[in-house]
Amino acid sequence: MSTNISRGELKYEGKAKRVYATSTPTEYIVEYKDDATAFNGVKKAQIGGKGAINNAITAHLFPQLEQAGVPTHFIERLSDTEQRVRAVTIIPVEVIVRNVAAGSFSKRLGIEEGTPLSRPVVEYCYKSDALGDPLINTDTAVALGWATPEQLSRIRELALNVQAFLVPYFLERGVRLIDFKLEFGTLQDGTVVLADEISPDTCRFWDAETNEKMDKDRFRRDLGGVEDAYAEMLRRVTAPAQG
Ligand SMILES: Nc1ncnc2c1ncn2[C@@H]1O[C@H](COP(=O)(O)OP(=O)(O)O)[C@@H](O)[C@H]1O
Ligand SMILES: [Mg+2]
Fold first, then answer.
1. pLDDT digits (tens, 9 = 90+) for 125-140
2. CA 104 to CA 232: how far, in whole Å?
């Protein structure tokens, strides 16, 4: 199974992961860290076990998304905290899909957190730590050369496919998917693929019965029980669908 592959030079280090080159130019190793940041890096801590949990959750979901018609960067999980992926050029546009008002959407629009949206809302942000990932629209991304109109329409289509797969997937496991953030990249032949991760760092998950938060908001808002929530999310993601 696991190919003989080893880490080469560190290509990028972000807030939650490190990306290493390998001896195959078209492949990288992603290492998931326990480091957690919020409010654009102002708040920093370690969440014990987070790297392994986010690696496992992403490694569980991406092959299923691939099956559902969403091409992804994922190749295989290599260890507790590492996975082998296809090297992509990241498109610097973060894609957020929202089902229920929360977080910056609630704040910006004065809509109470927890208000259901009558259809999914796709938002775009410029991926820039220096600027705090500001909200943009697709014209901005095209005008500034970050993506082509064709790439953006493909990204929207894929993001809604991810949405259509994940919402029932989580609901069958007792979790409401409130919103989530995706990153896409291009392969050398130009194919747009889903990259990065899908985890409690990048999604809002609320317990379907109690609406208890089971994601990074527990860390952002000092709600306690952060490690337990991440561990419970891994348990539910890997559990079979309920009744
Ligand atoms: N397949 C891939 N190829 C190249 N870069 C990737 C791939 N998947 C994710 N990345 C990038 O890896 C970097 C590290 O991830 P992360 O720590 O989450 O960064 P950030 O601090 O920007 O959230 C990010 O810039 C992310 O876009
Ligand atoms: Mg990230």
1. 999 999 999 999 999 9
2. 25
